[in-house]
Each structure stands twice: as C-alpha cells, then as structure tokens.
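User: Predict structure, ligand magnesium ion.
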Amino acid sequence: MFDRKHNCIVVVGAQWGDEGKGKLVDVLAEQADVVVRYQGGANAGHTVVVGERQVVLHQIPSGILHPRVRCVVGNGVVLDPETFFGEIKELTAQGIEIAGRLFVSDRAHVVLPYHKLLDQASEMQQQIGTTGRGIGPAYEDKIGRRGVRVTDLCRGRGAREFLEPRVERANGMLRLMGSPATADLDEHVELFGRLGAKLRPLATDTGLLVHRALRSGQRVLLEGAQGALLDVDHGTYPFVTSSNTTAGGAAVGAGIGPTEIDGVLGVVKAYTTRVGNGPLPTEVAGDLQAQLRDLGGEFGATTGRPRRCGWFDATVVRYSVRVNGLTGLAVTKLDVLDTFEEIPVCVGYRLDGSECAEVPSDVEALDRVEPVYEVLPGWQRTTATARRLADLPPAARAYLDRLEDLAGQPIRFVSVGTRRDQIIEV
Ligand code: GDP
Ligand code: IMO
Ligand code: MG
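Assistant: Predicted complex:
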C-alpha cells in the first residue's frame, strides 16, 4: 500500500467489525513510522499474534509491537484512562518498550465511570448489545458540549468544581432511566488526580505530530475501529456504535486534512460476523453457524461474546467500498473456509419480491431482505501455508476472484492465519 506517492493509508473494517484490522495494521506497520487510532475507544478489540504471543489491543494502536513505530491515540477517540494504563502495564510486563513513543491527543474526550453506568442503564431501555464501555454516553457528552477532554484531566486543579455538575447530571439521568446506580463524585475527583498526572507526559497536539510526520516524508497508518456497518451515519442504525467508523472519520479523528490521505484499505472476512444486536442478512442457521464460529474462533476480543456468523455479503461490501472510498481490499480468514464442500456467497438481495441493489436505510427492511446466493465450490485443502496466490488451491483463487468481481475493488492482501507471516501480498 505504501510507496513514494502513498504515505498516508487508512485501514478500515468493511463489515461489522472484527475483520482482522489489528492483524493487517501490524503487518503494514512494518513499513510505517506512525500508527494512529482515530475513533472509538475501549469497545475495540484488535488482536495481534506475534510468534507464540497473542496481544489484544483495545485503545493502543496495533503498531505498538514494532519498536520503531510511534503510536498515537487521536482526538477522535474516547479514551478510558483507567483501562488505557492497564493496557500499558500489560504490554510493559510482556517486555514491550513503550516509553517515548506513545502519544495521546490533548483534545481527545475521556470516558469516566459515569459514562459506563449510563451505557448500562440505556441498555435496559434499548438493547443495542453494546460493549458496556461507556462509548455512546461519552460521544453524547462530546456532541452535547459537556464532555471531558484529556486537557481537562491534565489541568490538575479545580477538578471538583469541574466534575460536580457533570456527576450530578449523570445521576439525574440515571434516576430518570430508572437505574439504581449512582456515580460518586469523590471517586471521580480521585481518578482525575491520579490519572491526570499519568496522562500529562503523553498528552500533546497529536494532529500537529501527524502533520509534521507527513511533511517530513514519514509513513502514517490510520487504524480504524469497528466497521462500516457500525458507523453512526452509514451503519445499521440504531444498531451501530457512536462514531464515524468509515474512512471520512479518519481525517477528522486524526486531526489532519482529508487531502493528506492517499489510500483506504478495507478489511473484510472471507465470510461475515457481527456481535451485538441488529440485522445480519446472511446469518447462518443452526449447527452450521456453530461450525463456522468454532472454526473461526469467533468470540469477541473485548467481551468474549459469541459472534454471529454468516456468509460473505457482497451487497454489504460493495456499499462499504462506496461509503469508504476504498482503494483496495484485504480478505482475511480464508483458511477458516478450508473444510467446506460448498461456500455460499450472497450476490444481492430481494426485498418484498423485488431486486434490492443497496443496503436499505431502514433496519426493518434490512431484516426482511432475502439474500440471493451463488454457491461456489470449496477447496477442502489447507490454505494456511500459502504465501503467494499461486500457492492457493484453484477453487480458493476462484473464490477470491469472485469476491473481487462482486466488490469491484482489487484484493491487495489475503490473510490465511492469525500469524504475521500468514499473509499473501497480491
Ligand atoms: P479486529 O477487531 O478487526 O482487529 O479483529 P479481531 O482481532 O477482533 O478479530 C479477528 C480474529 O481473527 C483475531 O482473533 C485474529 O487473531 C484472527 N485472525 C485474523 N486474521 C486471520 C486469518 O487470516 N485467519 C484466522 N484463522 N484468524 C485470523
Ligand atoms: P473492533 O474494533 C465488533 C458493536 C457492539 C454493539 C455496537 C455498539 O474490534 O472491530 P458500543 O459499545 O460501541 O456502543 O456498541 O457496536 N461493537 C463492535 N463489534 N467489533 C468492534 O470493534 C465493536 N465495537 C463495538 O457489539 O453491537
Ligand atoms: Mg475486534
């Protein structure tokens, strides 16, 4: 993806999240100088496998395993400082040197304990199936202009006066929602003091950092979280997350101009998964779903919930190509399909008896669509050892060719296992 003319690349999920963005970012970070997370927060779970070691990153960019790479938590992220420092501690315990190469935007908003209480309370009213990490309420406060930013946490004085009206408001909301939970002001003041001091050395104008890196010819990767169908504008609303997960959000959330971005890589599984509620047109029924889940190890990296599994959905991926302006695809988990005799691919939808070429805006309609399947022959051989396209069984290549045709974008990478070396660059 990187070359002399392409220094700034976005990696986004092109389905419902968990496509393997962490793995792709780790692979691409080999050639990068800076990796930036630009939206979402601790709802993300990005898995990176290096040798025998598996690391799940929630807020720290997936470039952190490359000692040379600088990592940035951008202004568009909602940062949970408590779990953030927990993550740093775990990585440090594994011998990963972080000092001096991890930066946090002073403009990023902060997730506080009351945001998590509000998240849980609102799930009692409307079951989105959130990760419970306080993401929605933190973004609500940001847009409502009553949020708390990293710069506020770092100020180091006036914490009680600053927090009191916010905690009071949260408690009022909790009461209104019929929740028995209450947020404690003293706990919040203590957290401010303790974590503000730890954040101060990391907090900076990260937009400027990224801008300067690009000006000096360095390579920058912008790491998306979640997936296009979870985007608050373009996803299966209201069953979405509360940020713009699509590539348009990358410039805003990293603090650079959109003209700086040179390419957008969309990561797609060779099939489809979703965790949480909302429509999933190609969801597989019964035992076959359990088989796909077990083969793919489809359990949430953040919550451990079983992921719902379905076949590849070309209508979704075509939509994703459009709303993200994808310039290439990375197909992951091809190896998970190795044992199937036949593999259905959804090539379109029918809605109320007519052809439906686009993802409908109305989730009730998306719930009603009937996928039109084309059944492709399986290859029933391992793909895990392939390192070039030529190493793949002909039926696996035909499968990829068909996905490429349907998506209308070139496949640039194929992933055939969890490890760093299990990748084919096309
Ligand atoms: P992310 O949120 O997009 O980074 O994806 P997750 O890390 O939540 O989920 C992807 C899971 O699939 C992780 O457990 C990865 O280790 C694993 N994975 C990634 N690529 C492949 C692949 O090509 N084959 C297999 N079998 N597993 C993969
Ligand atoms: P990564 O980055 C998959 C889903 C939740 C829920 C909805 C809203 O690992 O791909 P939220 O807590 O964000 O308010 O939940 O979004 N969700 C994800 N699903 N992968 C993720 O992240 C997700 N982050 C949030 O399950 O349906
Ligand atoms: Mg994940």
